[in-house]
Write a structure and sequence with these properties.
Blueprint lengths: L6 H9 L3 E13 L2 E11 L3 H5 L7 H7 L16 E5 L14 E5 H7 L16 H5 L16
Antiparallel strand pairs: 1-2, 3-4
Bound molecules: zinc ion (ZN).
Length: 150
């Protein structure tokens, strides 16, 4: 449902009548048409259904976000630079690069586990829903009413 859009896109969509602004930020920006209050939450009418069904792209960053920057083997939280993506069932044995076979692992655990499946992750990897990935770290107070948290 939620997508972080650059403010210029949001202003444009509203101006063209395609977006419905639900809430605004207190700040104003100056445009050719005068001062304009920045939209905070915008519903894009014709694309609403599409956004709801939007799939999360399988990227390293999104796997870290799904796992809350925690190593799936030792359970500790790390900085992004100290994390890797691990194939639960090793790639060398035919393990796939899919949401349900990839987990966040710290460098040390990844090294210990190596090319085996001797270590089991603390949680079962799964495909996340769009909102889980997109709201992390960027929630603005104005959005809270529109966010469904798990
Ligand atoms: Zn670890």
């Amino acid at each position: 449902v939620l997508r972080v859009a650059p403010w210029k896109d949001a202003v444009c969509l509203e101006y063209q009548g395609k977006g419905l602004v639900l809430e605004r930020y207190p700040e104003h920006v100056k445009t050719v048409k005068g001062y304009y209050q920045l939209p905070a939450v915008i519903v894009i009418k014709d694309r609403f259904v599409k956004f709801v069904r939007r799939k999360v792209k399988m990227r390293k960053k999104n796997i870290f976000i799904r796992d809350k920057f925690k190593c799936a083997y030792c359970g500790q939280t790390f900085d992004r630079e100290k994390l890797t993506v691990d194939h639960v069932y090793p790639k060398s044995k035919g393990g796939k690069s899919t949401w349900d076979n990839l987990v966040t692992a710290c460098i040390l655990c990844n090294r210990i586990k190596g090319d085996t499946d001797k270590m089991k992750p603390l949680w079962k990897p799964y495909e996340p829903k769009a909102h889980q990935v997109f709201i992390v770290g960027k929630i603005q107070p104005e959005w809270r009413n529109y966010i469904v948290e798990d």
